[in-house]
Amino acid sequence: MNIGEQLVSSYLQYIRGCEFTQKNLYTVESQGEIDVIGINLKEKSVYICEVAIHLVTGLLYTRGSNSNNVLKITEKLSKDIDYANTFFPEYKKHFMFWSPIVKKSRADAKLNQMRDVEEIKRNIFSKYGVDVEFVINEAFLSCLNEMRSFAKKESKELKCPVMRSMQIEEYLKEHVEKINQPIVASCDDFHPALNPARKPDNLVVHLEPNDENEFKRRLLISRKAEIKTVYSHGGDPTVKIWNVSKFNGNSSVIGNIRSRNEFRLANRLANKIMEVYVTVK
Predict the structure, then answer these.
(1) Ranges of H-type helices in 138-279
(2) Does residue 55 lie within any of the structural domains?
(3) 151 and 49 share a domain?
């Protein structure tokens, strides 16, 4: 399987809605081969695609030691257009050239792949009046992202190997994100009588500002903070003012809050305290 051609075929099938796709279509008249062709019967559209996956060198066909991009690709696209005009006269035609990496060099450089692309476009338009769509660089990546988005939303098993691979990857990423999220438990989960296998966790404290150093800096100036306590039984939160007197630059913010009498373990479990929000006033 040529992965590049399979990728383009999958794009035509799943994103462009082609009911029929074929790879490596041999054209008897021109004795050539079209990498991928897709037909959308509902829209009466045909997609004629050439694919070049050159990852290290970028888009580079050579003859001897010289680049042959312009001549080779112009000839190949010309044969594609002649074929489509002959066999699909009533169809809307889309001519595409797919290549993920096309490099840009200095304007005066001997090898300049982006300059080659522009020259090929001019050659084809001058000969046929056709604008070839070059799916390269950012455009290629955008098409991949379209396919990933489709695969992520589709729940049924996708039969195409490329799309199935993307589907597995997207579902796996979502699964891993979920299992790595912290589990918020109620205080009942920590109560020895209700869950003897679970050790009590420290009280969850949310600071505003959330950076502890910045919180401490502001608290040393204002000497006052608001403590809002949230309960697992669903009752209304309670709010108290924390007037700071002995707190200094070496004191621990979180340690001071957790050591308050109402937040010690026995009281926290008895009152079903789940978490607190502390805001500098």
Answers:
(1) 138-153, 161-179, 187-190, 212-222, 253-258, 265-270
(2) yes
(3) yes
- Could you tell me if 117 and 230 lie in one domain? no
Q: With respect to residue 181, please indicate whether it lies within any of the assigned structural domains.
A: no
Residue 201: band (very low, low, confident or very high) from pLDDT cuts 50, 70, 90: low
pLDDT tens-digit series, residues 30-66 = 778 999 999 999 999 999 999 999 999 999 999 988 8
Query: What is the identity of the amino acid at 173?
Result: K
Report the chain's terminal Cα–Cα distance, integer Å: 66
Within a domain: residue 115? yes
- In terms of Cβ atoms closer than 10 Å to its own Cβ (0-12, 13-18, 19+), residue 10 is buried
The answer to the question of residue 9 being in a domain is yes
Are 255 and 274 in a shared domain? Answer: yes
1/143: higher pLDDT: 143
Number of domains in the chain: 2
The values of phi and psi at residue 50, to 5°, are -115, 145
Task: Copy the structure tokens of residue 82.
Answer: 């002649």
Other beta carbons within 10 angstroms of residue 140's beta carbon come to 19
Each residue's pLDDT tens digit, 122-142? 999 999 999 999 999 999 999
Closest to 162 measured CA to CA, from 174, 175, 176, 151 = 151
pLDDT digits (tens, 9 = 90+) for 203-258: 889 998 888 888 888 888 888 999 999 988 778 889 999 888 888 888 888 888 88
Domain of residue 51, residue span: 3-176
Domain boundary among 149, 176, 203: 176
Same domain, 167 and 191: no
Q: Rg of the Cα trace of the chain?
A: 32
